[in-house]
Design goal:
Elements (H helix, E strand, L loop, with lengths): L1 E6 L2 E3 L5 E9 L4 E9 L6 E7 L4 E3 L7 E6 L4 E6 L8 E9 L6 E4 L3 E5 L2
Parallel strand pairs: 2-11
Antiparallel strand pairs: 1-3, 3-8, 4-5, 4-9, 5-6, 7-8, 9-10, 9-11
Length: 119
């Protein structure tokens, strides 16, 4: 069993910054990557960024610039730093952990953390 827990969401004023955290635990010996998606009200879930255990990062084109993903392998954790927040960033941010024991990979999701950007 794999557990994924996000934290760090909340209410932020426009122009502010925020750091989200995500920790994976349980059967994660074959942890390959972790990442972030977000889902705004009435919208589909969309990729924000991901990072592999060897440090390779990937960002959705629309997320490049204000979003930075980083990881701490010792803590099986990743972080998402968001700068210059706007109301359009209001969404539930979901973290996943990707386990890859052999060829196939499996994603495990957290419950999400709400980010609300408003003055």
């Amino acid at each position: 069993q794999v557990h994924v827990v996000e934290s760090g969401g909340g209410l932020v004023q426009p122009g502010g910054s925020l750091r989200l955290s995500c920790a994976a635990s349980g059967s994660i010996v074959s942890l390959h990557a972790m990442g972030w998606y977000r889902q705004a009200p009435g919208m589909q879930r969309e990729l924000v960024a991901s990072i592999t255990t060897d440090g390779r990062t990937d960002y959705a084109d629309s997320m490049k610039g204000r979003f930075t993903v980083s990881g701490d392998n010792a803590k099986n954790s990743i972080y998402l730093d968001i700068n210059n927040l706007s109301p359009d960033d209001t969404a539930v941010y979901y973290c996943y952990a990707e386990i890859k024991p052999r060829v196939a990979s499996y994603r495990y999701w957290g419950q999400g953390t709400q980010v609300t950007v408003a003055s």
